Amino acid sequence: MKAAVVTSFEQPPRYGEFASPVPASPHDEVVEVLASGLHPRVRSQADGSHYTSTDELPLVPGIDGVGRRENGELVYFVLGDGPLGAMAERTLIDTRRSVTLPADVDPVAIAAAMNPAMSSWIPLRTRVDFRPGQSVLVLGATGSAGRLALQTAKRLGADRIVAAGRGAERVEALRDLGATHVVDLSAEPDAVAAQIAATSAEVDVVLDYLWGSPTEAAIPPLLKARGDRSRALDWIEIGAVAGPEIALPSTVLRQANVRFLGSGQGSASVRAIVESLPALAAEIIAGTYRLDADAVPLRDVEAAWATRASQRVVLVP
Ligand SMILES: NC(=O)c1ccc[n+]([C@@H]2O[C@H](COP(=O)([O-])OP(=O)(O)OC[C@H]3O[C@@H](n4cnc5c(N)ncnc54)[C@H](OP(=O)(O)O)[C@@H]3O)[C@@H](O)[C@H]2O)c1
């Protein structure tokens, strides 16, 4: 069958041949793939840099998507870590990791939004005790996942939603998605620290897509500006687009009641993640989220890899 095939971690996937899937367990089922998102996680799968990479080649990238089952039903599916991903004419799903979708759903909208939206939906719904009226800071709010995180926070009743990202105009535009306050991370360091302290001193949760230097610079002013330093703060580390590490002074940490949690593959059981998905799919179908998606035919996968547009690219047959 035709697929996007990675034969070297140094090169983007190419459109080519890959062995057709064969079910191996009672829960396996072959589906026709209708849409699969090109998420940052998929790029790191295809270049071997993701922390789950086994270095096995060749591989077909794609961690999730929308497929048509043999009985005609549409499903959203999440794949395991094997060599056959979703960017193929057909793939092998585990029916226990799939969600049945209405027949009239837009596969591209679901494939674009589920992965980035679950990065905020799952932690706010299941990892922390988030309640309506609480406040959230989104670090990295200009990306697909960050923009959806603002919308998740709004949907779950957040009172104050602070959007931090680089570019004054870009962060201003995030008010349309629910941000009540914005921070331009590309300003001078002292100005950024002052904006963080002014907008985010009293937040209950930080959804962090950046890590690296912007997170390192945000922690001290935020924690030091809290009116009551003993008030609990959950700092949820979700992505690391700005760097893999931070330095955290012990004196800053010891003066605060902050809990750092990781959110990603391995941080919650597969079962817990899958149980969260039907409600999220229902929200996407109901129109809770705005996210621009760009559908690209599978045969153009190489060109799709080269684009860095802000829309989420989704490969379609
Ligand atoms: N753990 C999970 O479950 C999960 C799920 C989804 C996503 N993620 C992770 O979350 C991260 C973001 O995903 P995404 O889908 O939003 O990616 P994306 O759509 O590619 O967006 C990345 C955003 O980060 C911004 N950015 C990059 N470097 C920055 C810096 N130094 N300071 C401020 N902003 C910076 C980019 O802005 P510019 O345009 O200015 O570069 C862009 O807006 C990725 O690491 C992804 O792997 C994790």
Can you put this structure into words, describing what you see?
The chain is an alpha/beta fold and 317 residues long. The chain folds into two domains: 2-105 and 287-316, Medium-chain alcohol dehydrogenases, catalytic domain (Quinone Oxidoreductase, Chain A, domain 1), CATH 3.90.180.10; 116-262, Rossmann fold, CATH 3.40.50. 31% of the residues lie in helices and 24% in strands. The protein has nine helices and 15 strands. It has helices at residues 40-46, 107-127, 144-155, 168-173, 189-200, 212-224, 250-254, 270-286, 301-306; strands at 2-5, 14-17, 28-37, 64-68, 74-78, 90-94, 98-101, 135-139, 160-165, 181-184, 205-208, 233-237, 258-262, 293-297, 312-316. Strands 3, 4, 5, 6, 7, 14 and 15 form a seven-stranded mixed β-sheet that branches. The protein has a six-stranded parallel β-sheet with strand order 10-9-8-11-12-13, with helices on both faces. α2 (107-127) packs across α3 and α2 packs across α8. The longest helix has 21 residues, at 107-127. The relative contact order is 0.16. NADP nicotinamide-adenine-dinucleotide phosphate binds next to α1, α2 and α3. Residues 39-41, 115-116, 119, 140, 142-146, 165-166, 185, 209-210, 214, 238-242, 263-264 line the site of NADP nicotinamide-adenine-dinucleotide phosphate.
Kindly list the characteristics that best describe this protein.
317 residues, alpha/beta, Quinone Oxidoreductase, Chain A, domain 1, Rossmann fold, 2 domains, seven-stranded mixed sheet, six-stranded parallel sheet, binds NADP nicotinamide-adenine-dinucleotide phosphate
